[in-house]
Amino acid sequence: MSKPSTIAIDGPAASGKSTLAIAIAEHLDYLYFDTGVMYRGVTLVALNGGNALPPEERCVAIAQTVRIDVRPPSKDDGRLFDVWINGEDKTLEIRQPEVDANVSIVSAYQEVRTALTKQQRRIALKGDVVMVGRDIGTVVLPEAEIKIYLDASVEERARRRHAECLERGDKVGYEEVLQSMRQRDEIDSTRHIAPLKPAQDAVIMNSDGKTAQEIFAQTKTLLEEKEKLGA
Description:
The chain has nine helices and eight strands. With about 230 residues, it is of the alpha/beta class.
C-alpha cells in the first residue's frame, strides 16, 4: 500500500476547501499549498491601496516579477500560514474585501495564470503536497493522484465569508458579501482560461450542512480506499 503523493482540492470561494486541505496535510504530514494566495498577492499589489485595478498589462508585469513566499504561521491571530510579498507580511491584507472583489478579474488574465502556474507546478511536482485552488485538478496538476471538488451553496459560502470579515473587524454587510460572491462565481466559472469546474475524475463533495470534521472524515475514508488500491 502507498499514500498518494499529490492531492488536488478545487472548489469555489469559501466552500471549505482550505480547511479540508490543511486537515489532510496535517494528517499525512504533507505540504499545504493554497495557490489562491498567489493571485491574491498579485491583486493586492495591483490595487496599491485603492479600489480600482490598473490595466491588464500592469497586472501581468506584477505577476512576472513579484516575490510571494508562503511560510508556517508566525502569529497566533487566526492565520493558517504567513504570506510574504516582496519581503513584507501581507497575510491579513490579502483577505480584504477589495481583494475579494477583484481577485477573479486578475486570475482570469492568461499571462498572470501562466506566470503563477509555472511556480505552482514546480512546488507540486516535488510530491507530498496538498494543493488547493480552482484549477488544480484541471490545469495546474492534472496528474494528481487524488482530486476532490468541494462545493457548497452560494448562500452558505457568503455566510462563512461574512463571519470571517466580521471576525477581522471589517465592516461589511452579508448582502454585499453575497453579491460579491455571486459575481466571483460567474467570473470564475465562465472565464475562457482555466474556468472553475470539477476535473472529470474528481470526487465531488458538498459541504452544506456538514461540519469540517464530517468532511474530513469522508475524505479520510477516500484516502484509505486509495491506499488499499495502491494509488
